[in-house]
């Protein structure tokens, strides 16, 4: 199985990007992982929220295969602890799915088309985080999930 994370816009902080790179590298020891960044929409300030979501949605869906399990990082998604998330990953691996795609949407969320294609929604917290920090958090949780599945000491129960 492959895991892909799609996010909108670049990470401005060099320190945050260094942490993201570190956890991407760590995660690569467990599973094939790809981080794909969709550039910010040009002239977004001239678009309505709905137009921006639609344009971002088209770019997201262009990166999804019909056989992918599309999972949205959404404030209204299912919340779980790290052990629960590791079990969630294991279920996807056991299902025979070739690729799971997690998506961090733009500032206004997802278009209706993206919601319709999604196979699930998860929430990292009831709190709101910057989209750039969410990248680090989900990649770290993916890494933590695999260390839990392998019973390694990174995650202390």
Automatic annotation (TrEMBL):
<dbReference type="Pfam" id="PF02590">
    <property type="entry name" value="SPOUT_MTase"/>
</dbReference>
<dbReference type="InterPro" id="IPR003742">
    <property type="entry name" value="RlmH-like"/>
</dbReference>
<comment type="similarity">
    <text>Belongs to the RNA methyltransferase RlmH family.</text>
</comment>
<comment type="function">
    <text>Specifically methylates the pseudouridine at position 1915 (m3Psi1915) in 23S rRNA.</text>
</comment>
<keyword id="KW-0949">S-adenosyl-L-methionine</keyword>
<feature type="binding site">
    <location>
        <position position="105"/>
    </location>
    <ligand>
        <name>S-adenosyl-L-methionine</name>
    </ligand>
</feature>
<keyword id="KW-0808">Transferase</keyword>
<dbReference type="GO" id="GO:0070038">
    <property type="term" value="F:rRNA (pseudouridine-N3-)-methyltransferase activity"/>
</dbReference>
<keyword id="KW-0963">Cytoplasm</keyword>
<dbReference type="InterPro" id="IPR029028">
    <property type="entry name" value="Alpha/beta_knot_MTases"/>
</dbReference>
<keyword id="KW-0698">rRNA processing</keyword>
<feature type="binding site">
    <location>
        <position position="73"/>
    </location>
    <ligand>
        <name>S-adenosyl-L-methionine</name>
    </ligand>
</feature>
<protein>
    <recommendedName>
        <fullName>Ribosomal RNA large subunit methyltransferase H</fullName>
        <ecNumber>2.1.1.177</ecNumber>
    </recommendedName>
</protein>
<feature type="binding site">
    <location>
        <begin position="124"/>
        <end position="129"/>
    </location>
    <ligand>
        <name>S-adenosyl-L-methionine</name>
    </ligand>
</feature>
<comment type="subunit">
    <text>Homodimer.</text>
</comment>
<dbReference type="InterPro" id="IPR029026">
    <property type="entry name" value="tRNA_m1G_MTases_N"/>
</dbReference>
<keyword id="KW-0489">Methyltransferase</keyword>
<dbReference type="GO" id="GO:0005737">
    <property type="term" value="C:cytoplasm"/>
</dbReference>
């Amino acid at each position: 199985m492959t895991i892909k994370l799609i996010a909108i816009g670049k990470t401005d902080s060099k320190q945050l990007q260094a942490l993201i790179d570190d956890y991407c590298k760590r995660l690569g020891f467990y599973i094939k992982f790809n981080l794909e960044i969709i550039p910010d929409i040009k002239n977004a300030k001239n678009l309505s929220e709905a137009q921006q979501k639609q344009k971002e949605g088209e770019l997201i869906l262009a990166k999804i295969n019909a056989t992918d399990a599309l999972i949205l990082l959404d404030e209204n998604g299912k919340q779980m602890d790290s052990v629960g998330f590791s079990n969630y990953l294991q279920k996807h691996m056991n299902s025979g799915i070739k690729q799971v795609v997690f998506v961090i949407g733009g500032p206004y969320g997802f278009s209706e088309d993206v919601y319709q294609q999604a196979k699930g929604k998860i929430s990292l917290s009831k709190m709101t985080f910057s989209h750039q920090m969410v990248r680090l958090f989900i990649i770290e949780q993916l890494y933590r999930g695999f260390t839990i599945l392998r019973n390694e000491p990174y995650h202390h129960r």
